[in-house]
Amino acid sequence: MNYRAAERKSFKVVGKRLVTPEGGGTWAVCKADGSYEKIQSFGKKGQETLGLCFGFDAEGRNDYMVGIACGEDHPGFDSYVYPDLQWLIFTAEGKISENVLENTWKLIHEKFLPQSTCRQAEYPTIESYKVWDIASDRCVVEIMIPVE
């Protein structure tokens, strides 16, 4: 699997955090209630929207935040601050209809991490959405995993 390692200084993500019964539930809520557009306005033009994956509970519900890296808080929105961390960054690129994002996650968890000397740190992983174009059935998403 192709990946790269990177160091990143502490940063804050501001957005909307929800626990939903499915993986894409928070995105659907944010797009339906208008908060997605507000979140994008907190960043610079063209800045990637982020998905923070806090994990799944025993019933399979997803604790997830749609956000953007931003230095300031915004009333009515959640924030999460990452400390200085090391990251492994994988790229999921291909057809949305062929589940490229889910398949990349599966390879990371079933093949890469079990064989790696890296240990995932206890912070949310990040999906950085570079391209998500349903009309052309194409996505480019960086999956960022904090490691120790």
Descriptive report:
By secondary structure, the protein is an alpha+beta fold. The protein has helices at residues 25-33, 35-41, 100-115; strands spanning 3-8, 11-20, 49-56, 62-69, 78-82, 85-95, 125-133, 138-147. The longest helix has 16 residues, at 100-115. The chain is globular. The two termini are 19 Å apart.
Determine the N-to-C terminus distance: 19 Å
Order of helices and strands: EEHHEEEEHEE
> How is the quaternary structure best described?
single chain
Structure summary, number of beta strands: 8
| Largest sheet features | 8 strands, antiparallel
Q: What structural class do you assign from the helix and strand content?
A: alpha+beta
Number of helix segments?
Answer: 3
| Mean pLDDT reading | 94
Looking at the structure, what is the overall shape? globular
Estimated helix fraction? 10-25%
* Uncertain regions spanning at least 5 consecutive residues: none
Strand order within the widest sheet? 1-6-8-7-3-4-2-5
Percentage of residues in DSSP E strands: over 45%
For the CA atoms, what is the radius of gyration? 15 Å
